[in-house]
Amino acid sequence: MKLVNFGVLLFLMQCYMLIKASGADITFIGNIKDDKLLGGTMRVEYYRHYSFRGVWPADTVFIVKINNRKFTLRVNQPEKYGYFRIIMEKPYGENVNGRTLLIGAGDEANFILEDERIKYIGKDSSKFNCQMRIQFSDVTFSDLSNMSRDSNYFRCLMMPFNERRNNELKIIDSYSNVISREELNILRLNVKFEYYISTLGYLTDFLTSKDSVKKRNAYPFTKRYIDEIYSSYSAESDVLNSSNYYDLEYDIMKTKILLKDSMNVDESAWVFHNFFNEICKDYKGVLRDRLLLTSLTSFNSRDANRSQYNDMILNIVNDPFVKNIISRQLSKTIKGVPAFDFKLKDTMGNFVKLSDFRGKVVVVDYYFTGCTGCAALTVAMKPIIEKLKNNSKLVFLSIDIDKSVEQFKKAVRSGVYTHASGVNLYTNGEGENHELISYYSIQGYPLQMIIDKDGNIFDGDPPIPNVYKPETLSQLLRVIDSALN
Predict the structure, then answer these.
(1) What is the pTM assigned to this prediction?
(2) Across-strand partners of 367?
(3) Distance CA 196, CA 236 (A)
(4) Mean pLDDT for each consecutive 10-residue tract of the chain (485 residues)?
(5) β-pairing, 41-47 with 60-65?
(6) Which of 88, 107, 133 is the last residue of a domain?
(7) How far apart are CA 111 and CA 96, in angstroms?
(8) Which of 303, 331, 359 is where one domain is finished?
(9) pLDDT of residue 6
């Protein structure tokens, strides 16, 4: 009898491992213990592959209206591992948002929302609670101003990051009896890669400094450090399942561009054609394809030359995941396709539709309160709007994704993100959950689009004006003029 039971158990374990390897449904079960949450909404995002740098869009997004104390969601996970995150408003948002968690095929994310916190329960809870305990918090630096800028200085600079990494690895190791070895290794890689990303960020600050001494001292150490990073995970088999792997490779690639000629290169080298050339020269396969995707979708690589590479990259890449994202995004923003006919409220509470502006060219921008890039765009747009404000066939329209109508009105009054002569709308209190934002898979801000007189996309990725680069203003003016004529 014991032998029979053991055989059955072995068979079930083999079936389970087969499911984990080939993909299966994952389940989200929400248990609402806080009455204040009833009637509200929450957002659950599922990612087959995740990149913070690349702001890759979620594969599945659930907007949950919390009308009951319990709800269940299911999504098919075609691969062995993916990631998910839950997004909520304050006060829960401070303890829940931004935590992107590893989840395996067939897993069940069963959670309780109570006392402004989230707690995972059930068969797979250890994996999720472990990740929730890992805090990528700020670090405190010691005063190193009197140290010489040699390799010891840079090692001392990294010590707070090193301490944080070691604490997080200890948390992961404390779950070694309840989490599989493979999943523990992926979580360790996530922590290690986050450490490398943080430390590389500080080194690139030195490499892009106006102080030639700082640049000269950082140059040899950074070159050695990149070699050290590569040697630390070259033999790891689970890197492709890490949520931070592609971000780390992307940051290494950016740093290598600076290292080509550190004394003469600064952030101006971070333009799209340099990214494109570096990736195509030094990378291949899935890694190359996903770095190209990250370059396309990341805010830092947005420049006047980016859009001309879209079709070229689509023809180069072979990874189905990358092809699908690029095709999906481009299909909705290529010239001539109908733009989404939104229906949004203005500051007076009146609904305004895109079709209300038929016969006019519409320059649309998206923003949110606190977005420094959005504020910079407003400043850069001033001379363009001043030049064209009397053209009756042109409309400048700003869309705020703030959820609060009071915050929206405050933003408009401030003049930091909008212009007095423009049309100001917001996403009806739905924030980024509004169907307009989901339709275009908008992940980064600010974002501009130009819509022609027939309500079709004229340019879904126009040049972003920059006050420090006068040529970008001329480039955008030419696109608007072309749309008008």
Answers:
(1) 0.76
(2) 400
(3) 16
(4) 42 46 81 92 90 82 91 92 88 73 95 93 95 72 59 81 91 95 95 93 85 82 92 83 93 88 58 84 93 76 58 88 83 86 94 95 94 91 92 95 93 92 92 87 85 93 83 90 92
(5) antiparallel
(6) 133
(7) 11
(8) 331
(9) 43
Residues 305 and 206 in one domain: yes
Closest CA to 21 of 78, 72, 62: 78
Residues β-bridged to residue 338: 456
Residue in 279, 333, 350 with CA at minimum distance from that of residue 54: 279
Tell whether 63 is covered by a domain.
yes
Residue 26: exposure state from Cβ atoms within 10 A (0-12, 13-18, ≥19): buried
Clarify whether residues 316 and 362 are in a common domain: no
Q: Which residue has the tokens 């990528």?
A: 136
**H, E, C per residue of 441-462:** CCCCCCEEEEECCCCEEEECCC
Instruction: Note the helical H segments in 175-244.
Output: 181-207, 212-233
Both 289 and 354 in a single domain?
no
Residues 440 and 463 in one domain: yes
Whichever domain contains 44, its CATH number is: 2.60.40
Give the phi and the psi of residue 231 in degrees, each rounded to 5: -70, -20
Residue 138 lies in a domain: no
Give the residue numbers spanning the domain of 243.
Answer: 151-331
* Number of separate domains in the chain: 3
Other CB atoms within 10 A of residue 395 CB: 17
DSSP H or E segment with residue 346: strand 343-346
Please enumerate in sequence order all residues whose Cβ is within 8 A of that of 437, keeping only pairs 6 or more positions apart, or say none: 366, 401, 427, 431
Tell me whether residue 87 is in a domain.
Answer: yes
Paired tokens of 191: 């922590």
First to last CA, the chain: 85
Give the pLDDT confidence score for residue 13 in this predicted structure: 45
The 3-state secondary structure of 102-149 reads EEECCCEEEEEEECCEEEEECCCHHHHHHHHHCCCCCCCCCCCCCCCC
Structure tokens at 265: 């290169």
Burial per residue of 230-245, b for 16 or more beta-carbon CB atoms within 10 angstroms, e otherwise: eeebeebebbbbbbbb
Which residue type is seen at 296?
Answer: L
Q: Cβ distance 105 to 58 under 8 Å?
A: no
